[in-house]
Amino acid sequence: MFEINKIEYVDGRRYNLYLSKGPIIMLPKKINEDLLIFIKQNYEILKNNTNFQEYLDLRNFHEKTIRAK
After folding, report:
1. How far is CA 22 from the centre of its chain?
2. I want to staple 17 with a disulfide (CB 3.0 to 4.6 A). Which of 9, 25, 42, 61 is the partner?
3. CA-to-CA distance for 69 and 67, rounded, in angstroms?
4. pLDDT tens string for the chain (69 positions)?
């Protein structure tokens, strides 16, 4: 799906994924099957349609909110 260049543990509670060709993906504290399915099904759509270049913020994914910049 995408190549991860670096994984950073942030604030002792969550992770950032640094992609080799693209932005940072900020993950929520709770990583579950729903999140993984969402990323798998929607990453290319988000990348192509929202034109995010800096980050994809999924920290509030479980509250049904995502942000892209």
Report:
1. 11
2. 25
3. 7
4. 678 899 999 999 999 999 887 789 999 998 899 998 988 898 888 877 766 778 889 999 988 888 887
Residues 6+ apart with CB under 8 A from 14: 26, 27, 28, 29, 59
- The helix/strand/coil state of 56 is strand
Nearest alpha-carbon partner for 23 in 2, 45, 49, 1: 2
Tell me which residue of 65, 68, 46, 64 sits closest to 2, measured CA to CA. 46
Longest CA–CA span in the chain (Å) reads 32
